[in-house]
Design a protein that fits this description.
This protein has 609 residues and is α+β, with helices and mostly antiparallel strands. It has 13 helices and 37 strands.
């Protein structure tokens, strides 16, 4: 049988890869041999409604920037291992990059595979982090998964490289690996895969401005960029000592900061941010402002961090005190930075307009236990401990139920390990909450009681050694000292809720004294004029999830700091609009639409190394 190998004719030629658009020499960045500078801003397509991509990209251009940079979250495109990665609709990164080009912006793409970004699990799919494969290492099993992901993603990027007529001028290799590990070959392997899948434009690494971080993150013959929030002079000296010929490029300048639930709203003064920006771009320096426009952690995509061992979940808003606010407002920081950047073109973008404020009455629906009975899927018998991952669950909730004898007295329900928050019911009555570990005192009646433990995943850790940690009821539950051993567990996935079916149970009377119990609620409002953005406030409500016209907007929590949730106009419509809330703690009163964002008490924050 003849070989399938075909030898090309002697005069056949294989086209050489296109030369990269950017290079460097003598501390200067060059574009096709001419001095240039990257003035970029971070804007994540996955945090902005697609109908607003063009508007927000134009605002970057109005800021005086020439480039947009974006991460690519793997788990956003491939949440299930057996499904092909999705690049349609909101996930159409190629469409986003083409719009950037039409607006007049170059683009930098940061495909990871790990991205951090305050995005759940740092962008890595749960199915991968739960597999037991060592993460962010040169282990062939991890690299094989990355190879397959890049094979699907990168053709959509390489076809839009600048050296073939597109906007993409650079691609980042991994992300701040020097803050994570020390596998000497891992970053090099990621760079090799990027090249193998057709990336011919400039590659760069990005790490914090310390020797420790640069030691593990840099690659030979690859531009070493820095990430920082302050002290650009010291960072410039450090990189020139280690890479004397390279240009100074701050791949993330933290001009603001993100928020965790239960903390203050982090801000950075305009003068401070503009002054540091000026220090970065002096002497030909390049920069990417992180974030130029933060956007929103819609749905369940917000991440979390371990802070001194405590899980701190990230808010739905990713405003980040950016110069272009979450709702598109051009802030004083925008105009101060525009001056520093030397922008001379007129600002084409107008300040956004919002719906008029209004109060919205709420109808209370079924209590939470009935909602869980309707929404839970796949009950299965489990041992005293089991994780989301063992149950095939990703985000959302897992409901654990058990019937156990409770003596006729006060006793303790002891929870040894919950990841990360549990709402506990005994015979349908809410008895308390547990975060991580703790106990609840209940009254037994000498009979068997039904215990329901609803464990909530408030976001997976996105940074540091806790990436990939498991969620769920990870330790036993004790009645005093006796272990409850026989449980059933069911996944409760809010992203697949049939909202119509969940409203089917009879509506309780709002005059009932227990009307504030956790459960479902609905509201509707009309838009008679122009459809505009708005901000949804939930005064008196506890914590839960909210949908607008069937779209899962995100999480809310009375602990703050965030008091309103941004509702982009593309989610609304002329005429009647519907809001559905799943309240986990205490249903409140009327909802409100407000004309301004309320992100909570402010605290000045400047990240320093």
């Amino acid at each position: 049988m003849p070989s399938a190998l075909v030898t090309p004719a002697s005069d056949a030629t294989v086209p050489a890869p296109a030369a990269p658009t950017l290079s460097w020499a003598g501390n200067r960045l060059l574009r096709e041999g001419t001095r240039t500078r990257i003035l970029a801003g971070s804007l994540h397509y996955f945090r902005v409604h697609p109908d607003q991509w063009r508007d927000r990209l134009q605002r970057l251009r109005d800021l005086g920037l020439n480039t947009v940079d974006t991460y690519v979250p793997w788990n956003f495109h491939q949440p299930r291992p057996d499904d092909a990665p999705d690049f349609t609709g909101w996930r159409d990164i190629a469409a986003f990059l083409r719009i950037a080009a039409e607006v007049g912006l170059d683009a930098i793409v940061r495909p990871g595979p790990y991205i951090c970004a305050e995005w759940t699990n740092g962008g890595l799919p749960t199915w991968l982090t739960a597999s037991g494969i060592p993460l962010r290492t040169a282990d062939p099993r991890f690299l094989d998964a990355v190879d397959a992901w890049f094979a699907a993603l990168l053709p959509r990027i390489t076809d839009l490289q600048a050296n073939v007529g597109g906007p993409v001028i650079a691609v980042q290799v991994e992300n701040e690996f020097g803050s994570y590990g020390d596998d000497p070959s891992y970053v090099a392997e990621v760079a090799r895969l990027l090249r193998a899948h057709g990336v011919t434009e400039m590659l760069y690494t990005a790490d914090g401005p310390t020797d420790l971080m640069l030691d593990a993150g840099m690659l030979p013959d690859t531009l070493a960029a820095l990430t920082l929030g302050s002290q650009p002079g010291a960072a410039r000296e450090l990189i020139r000592r280690r890479r004397p010929d390279e240009p100074f490029f701050v791949a993330e300048f933290w001009n603001g900061w993100f928020d965790h639930w239960g903390t203050a709203h982090h801000v950075r003064g305009t003068a401070s941010a503009a002054g540091t920006l000026a220090g970065i771009i002096e002497d030909g320096g390049s920069v990417s402002i992180y974030m130029a426009h933060g956007g929103t952690n819609f749905g369940l995509w917000s991440g979390a961090n371990r802070v001194d061992g405590t899980l701190m979940a990230t808010t739905t808003s990713y405003d980040s005190d950016a110069p272009i606010a979450e709702d598109g407002t051009l802030t004083p920081k925008f105009f101060a930075m525009r001056e520093v950047l030397g922008a001379t073109e007129p600002v084409r973008s107008a300040q956004p307009e919002f719906l008029a404020p209004q109060r919205i009455d709420v109808a209370r629906g079924a209590d939470l236990p009935a909602i869980l009975d309707a929404a839970a899927t796949g009950p299965r018998r489990v041992a005293a401990t089991s994780s989301f991952e063992e149950l095939g669950a990703d985000d959302g909730f897992v409901r654990y139920t058990a019937d156990t004898l409770l003596p006729d007295r006060e006793l303790r329900l002891v929870f040894e390990r919950i990841a990360d928050r549990a709402f506990v019911f005994v015979d349908g009555e809410p008895v308390g909450e547990i975060e991580e570990r703790g106990e609840i005192v209940v009254r037994g009646h000498g009979a068997r009681a039904r215990i329901v433990v609803l464990v909530e995943n408030r976001g997976r850790v996105n940074y540091g050694s806790s990436i990939g940690e498991r969620k769920g009821m990870l330790g036993p539950v004790l009645v005093d000292r006796r272990i409850v051993q026989r449980w059933e567990a069911s996944a409760v996935d809010p992203t697949t809720f049939d909202l119509e079916a969940l409203r089917a149970p009879a509506q309780p009377d709002t005059a009932r004294p227990d009307a504030q119990r956790p459960g479902l609620a609905t509201a509707s409002f009309d838009i008679t004029g122009a459809v505009r953005d708005t901000h949804l406030a939930l005064p008196g409500w506890g914590t839960g999830l909210v949908w607008v016209n069937g779209f899962l907007l995100g999480r809310y929590a009375e602990v703050g700091p965030q008091q309103t949730l941004y509702v982009p106009a593309p989610l609304l419509r002329a005429g009647s609009n519907e809001i559905v809330l799943l309240e986990l703690r205490r249903r409140g009163g009327a909802l409100e639409l407000r004309a301004t964002a309320e992100l909570g008490p402010e605290e000045e924050y400047v990240e320093e190394f």
